[in-house]
Amino acid sequence: MTTPTYETMVRRGREADGEAVRVERGTDRALVTFAEPERLNALSAAVVRQLRDALESLTADPGVRAIVLTGEDPGFSAGGDLEMMDAAVARLRDPDDEAGTTDVWRWIRYEFGGIVRLIARTDKAFIAAINGATAGVGLAFALTCDLAIASERALLVPAFGRLGLLPEVGTSWALTRRLGYQGAFAFYAAGRHIDAGEAQRLGLVHEVHPHDELLAAADAWCERIAALPAHALAMTKPLLRACADASWEQALALEEFAEPNCFTTRAFAGAVAALRGPTGPQ
Q1: Distance between CA atoms of 261 and 213, rounded to whole angstroms?
Q2: Angle (nearest 5°) at CA 161 between 159 and 166
Q3: Bridge pairing between strands 125-130 and 147-151
Q4: How far is CA 245 from CA 176, 177, 199, 242, in A?
Q5: Three-state DSSP class for 30?
Q6: DSSP code of 194?
Q7: Where are the chain's structural domains?
Q8: Of all helices (H) and strands (E), which one includes residue 265?
Q9: Among 9, 61, 70, 65, which residue's Cα sits nearest to residue 34?
Q10: Mean pLDDT of all residues in the chain?
Q11: Residue 177 has pLDDT above 60, yes or no
C-alpha cells in the first residue's frame, strides 16, 4: 500500500531543513513571517507545519496579546503549493490508491483548517499585514485574522475559480459577510486581482499604508491591543465572532450575559473612578 499523501507531507514538513517561517517575539506580541520568498511564500509542507507549530506555541503563551502575520517580500502568500496539488492529482489517478479524496480532505481539514481554527478560536488578536500578493489559502488566512491591513503593493488574488476550485478554508464565510452574496459571487467568478485601494473600499482590509510603513502600522495596532484590559480582549473576540452568525436577539442575549462580568474587574472600577475624578465618591 502506498503511503498516504497527507502523512508524507506532514513528515516532510516536520523534517524540512531551513526556516520556512520566522518568528520574532516581543514582550506582549509576535511577528510571524512566511519566509520562502523565492516561491512567493506558497504554502509548502514546511511552511504549513512550521506555521502550525509557531501558532500553537504563541497562542499557549499567556504573555502574548497580539500576533502579526506577514510574508517576506515580495508577497504575502501565493496560497497552496502547486507541486503538492500536482502530486495529489497523480495519486488520485493511481488504481492502487486506497484513500481517494479523503486524503486530500485530511490535509485541508487538519493542516489548513487547523491553522484558521487556531486564528479564530484563540483569545489572542491576529493582524494580517498584507505586504504583497496573496491568493487562495493565503488569502483565507488573511481574511480569518481579526484585522487585516495592507501595503500599497498588496494584491488580493481570487485564484480558486481559475484552478477549478471553490472558495475554501473559511473564505466563502468571510467574503459573503464583507461583500454580500452577489459581491462574493462576483469576486469569485471574475477572478480579477484586487489592489489595496479597492480592497479597502470593499471592506476586505481595514487600512492601507506605504509599503515601508506596514509593519510599523501593525505594531501600532499591537500597542492599542496591549492597552486593553486582558479580559476585554479575551471576552470581546469570541463575542463578536459569535454575533456574526447570531440573530439580533441572540447577540443581545450574549452581550447581556457577558457584560456583568466586566463590572467585577479592577480595570473597570479603576476606569470609572478615573472618569469621575477626585470629586466622586471614595
Answers
A1: 38
A2: 100
A3: parallel
A4: 12, 10, 23, 6
A5: strand
A6: E
A7: 5-227, 230-276
A8: none
A9: 70
A10: 88
A11: yes
Instruction: Report how far apart, in Å, the C-alpha atoms of 148 and of each of 69, 124, 214, 244 are.
Output: 9, 15, 11, 17
Give burial (CB, 10 Å; 0-12/13-18/19+) of 24.
Answer: exposed
**Listed residue (223, 109, 221, 209) closest to 168, CA to CA:** 109
**In residues, how long is the chain?**
282
Specify the 3-state DSSP secondary structure of 70: strand
Region of poorest pLDDT, from 9-13, 65-69, 191-195, 211-215: 9-13
How, if at all, do strands 194-195 and 155-157 pair? antiparallel
Q: Is the pLDDT of residue 280 over 60?
A: no
**Residue showing cell 489592489:** 195
Q: Which pLDDT does position 1 carry in this prediction?
A: 43
CATH number of the 5-227 domain = 3.90.226.10
Sole residue written with cell 520568498: 37
pLDDT in tens, 110-142: 899 999 999 999 999 999 999 999 999 999 999
Q: Are 229 and 267 in contact (CB under 8 A)?
A: yes
pLDDT of 66 above 80: yes
Give the C-alpha separation, 193 to 136, whole Å: 12
Using the predicted structure, report yes or no on whether residue 154 has a pLDDT greater than 60: yes
For the ranges 54-63, 180-189, 245-254, which has the lowest average pLDDT? 245-254
Which residue type is seen at 146? Answer: D
Of residues 147, 151, 145, the one with CA closest to residue 132 = 151
Secondary element (H or E) of residue 3: none
